[in-house]
Automatic annotation (TrEMBL):
One of its GO terms (molecular function) is nucleic acid binding. This is Uncharacterized protein. PANTHER family: PROTEIN CBG26694 (PTHR37984), PROTEIN NYNRIN-LIKE (PTHR37984:SF5). Gene3D superfamilies: Ribonuclease H-like superfamily/Ribonuclease H. It comes from Microthlaspi erraticum. InterPro entries: Retrovirus_Pol_polyprotein (IPR050951), RNaseH_sf (IPR036397). The lineage of its organism: Eukaryota, Viridiplantae, Streptophyta, Embryophyta, Tracheophyta.
Length: 113
């Protein structure tokens, strides 16, 4: 991914590292349906537009226990989304497989390495 950001200027990779990290932290994963930053820290990372807005002091920040409950809820949702994604991948892979049932008298070719 970094190669496409720097192009032919390989030695300037450090100048785009912040942009790559920002993009990675905000990208929503297809399987988990959450960004990696939200899975780990429980909140959506602030971007440049969030920093330009005046803070909202009317919003209550909650307690640490509320944060843990919210993070546990996010992890539960991520687990459920991953299970759903795995079942979709399994269903797609199973379409290309055939069910073979062997009987006791069947001859089979065994390759032992």
């Amino acid at each position: 991914m970094l190669r496409c950001l720097v192009g032919n200027n390989i030695k300037s990779w450090d100048s785009v590292l912040c942009a790559a990290e920002f993009a990675h932290n905000h990208a929503v994963n297809k399987s988990t349906k959450f960004s990696p930053f939200r899975i780990v820290y429980g909140l959506v990372p602030q971007g440049p537009l969030d920093l330009g807005v005046t803070p909202d002091f009317t919003r209550s920040h909650g307690l640490a226990s509320d944060f843990v409950v919210d993070l546990t809820h996010i992890h539960t949702q991520v687990h459920d989304n991953l299970q759903l994604s795995v079942s979709k991948y399994k269903e797609a892979a199973d379409r290309h497989r055939r069910d073979v049932q062997f009987q006791v008298i069947d001859l089979v070719w065994a390759v032992l390495t």
